[in-house]
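Listing 4. Sequential folding, example run.
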Amino acid sequence: MSRIAGIAASGAPVRDRTEEVLDQLRLVFPFDAGIVSSVDPATGEPRALVTRGYPDAFADYLVGPEWYAECIEPFGLPRTGWPVRERDLPIDPMSLQGIMAGRQAGLYEGLLSALITPDGRDAGFVMLSWAEEASPSDDACALIGHLSEALANMVDPLQSAHVLASTLGDAYNAVALVKGGTLVQLRGAPAPALVDASAPARQMVEHVLSGRRNSVAFLWPRAEGGWYGCRAFRCGDGVAVLGYRELESPYGLTRRELEVLTSLVDGASNSEIAAQLWVTTRTVRAHVEHILEKLGVASRAAAVGRAVVEGLLLPRHAGQSSA
């Protein structure tokens, strides 16, 4: 256990550490297939760090929404602090699509454990399967249970600013903001309009750094036209990371429509938005209709959900514009 914990805490690349951890776990539980996933800090979606032995289609399924809804959320998230085996499930395992798919791949037992960080965030999961019908031993479960926090820290990009910056998409630039105001460019080109000490966008990042929020996503106007798509995260190493990429017009939304969408997220009514923007409620209704059409959603609630997840919001400092 101490050997695996040491590997998890080392400075090697996360994928290399994960491979080594699986090698060590196999000495305790000789699994035939295994997967370690992490949660994308930008989208909240799971993704595979390392997979072994699973058919490609099944491996893809394991990091999809169906598997999470069917097995991770109801059974995998820790309630007792230990991994879950098929025999531990409170329902017939054969009633679960994921278990049936595993049987079709020749895998009959295994264990599953969500990886939860010390501050309670879902960082991913580890699952190990084998072709035998016997359940993994209590000792194997205990080993994973004792190591789950160390493994969560290993796969969690928010534990390190540099690791987080490396996980952002290729289009992103990234800068780290350290308490006290020091800036460190992590990748790409700096954007003074975002990170200058007096820039309101930087104040959004400082809110994250101060602990008021774990993360925030927003848009910021570029001087030459278009937008910066921004995502700020508070990391475990005492810094905030701001990732930003250049965008033209997300979903074809105009600036005024983005202002209206931001107000919808704040819970404002049409009349309240009209008063804020000095327009008529009829104009606001027209803007809302255009927003729903451009986002391809059927309701204001769905538009709000899309805006929050994708960061289609304007900080109030950026929300002032002409009609």
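-- end of first protein; second protein begins --
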Amino acid sequence: MHKYIIKRLIYSVIIFFFVMLIIYVILRCLPTSYIERVALQKSMQPNSKSYEEWMAQLTAMYGMDKGYLIGYINWLKNFFTGNFGDSWFWTVPVVEEFHKTIWLSFTMGVITMFFELIIAIPLGIIAATKQYSKTDYAVSIIALAGISLPTFFFASLLKLVFSVKLGWFDLFGLVGRNYAQLDTWGQFLDKAHHLVLPIVTLVVLSIGSLMRYTRTNMLEVLNADYIRTARAKGLSERKVIYRHAFRNTLIPLVTIVGGSLPGLFSGALITETLYSIPGIGYASYHAMVAGDIPFSMFYLAFLAILTLLGNLISDLLYAVVDPRVRLS
């Protein structure tokens, strides 16, 4: 076990180096440049230097006058020494802005994942046990709708119905206009009220794939020989489904659970932006649009580490769930 973990960690470090190199080159090639925008603004001021002079000065100031490889090596040195720099767009240290926004996205991610698991897995099991019934068709329609609906369309539809027509929720934002006058409990309820529509959007659009995945794997298990043997021995249908079939269905679901680790911290970029929720997805979107390389690199490096860690956790959980798997 220890040898396997060490081996995977070494592979993960190598993969991380190459992934971040690709990301660094892409960010350097983005058509949006924070430096160009600042240079243009400063060159338009009275008695200012020319645009070209400002570009040369700012490029040297931000270390963008070096080649891609040298710039990437310098970024690696700063990253592993804990020097993450300042965000160009948010004008604060990268870690400060990250810490300010990450926990809101994490809270939304945990709540979304909780409702996704308790809704999608039971519905997928019910659809599989009642194959080709009206229940199966209804679950399949819900799953396909969740998979097919674009985020911006569904979020706009929810806002039109519940915000514009019914007036139950605000169109955007995390707090209401009377937030400062509320007590601690009132402020908590105000924030929770503003997170209802974003979380509903995330849950509805995420349950479809997990529901279909559960149904497909459950059907495959129910057609196995040992399930027919269990039924032939006279076991109740409930024991056959939930003690034998569902336990083996959990094996492929481990991949999804382990791979969902980055999603808990990555934030919902489109959803947070549409609802103006100041989470990490919202912050990273504006940073990338503005060409904020320090914040974007730190955010994407964080996601890369979580993705590699999630894959390792998935492999380890396979050995726990399925006794046939041996990491040796």
